[in-house]
What does this fold into?
Amino acid sequence: MAIYLELPVYKTCFELAVEFARARQKMPRESRYTTAQEIDRGLVGIMVLIYRANAAREKGELIAEARRQIVEVQIRLRILNELRHVSLSQAARFTELSESVSKQLARWHRSAVSTHFDAKAPSDEGGRPESGGSRSAGASQKANPMKKCGPTGNTEATP
It folds into this structure.
């Protein structure tokens, strides 16, 4: 397990939080204490979730929550951009960083979920618990009604 401070997704989110905090100082008061404050809280919340997911055995739900929160941050950033409370270059930078965080979280989530399911997958010898055998054993026991049987082309199953 890597130290959360060294995770690329954490570093990118932290960079976004710092750059946004600098831009927030120049925003109009009504946005600074409403939308901008919610963005700050959202980014800190995402960083906390990254820390918790890094330390947890079951990462999937924590990463999924971080993914939901980054979407909320992106929506609020877009609102600030539409209101012209951030410059175009700042908006582009915030979009770039938030997209990077989102993509990294998506890859981490996919990896965590597949690793979680791989760890719970039944072994090849035991097969699926509900079938009592391997996957192919049940499939080979069923006759295929479309398969031609014998030289005459008869489609009836042979005993």
About this structure: Residues 123-142 have pLDDT under 50 and may be disordered.
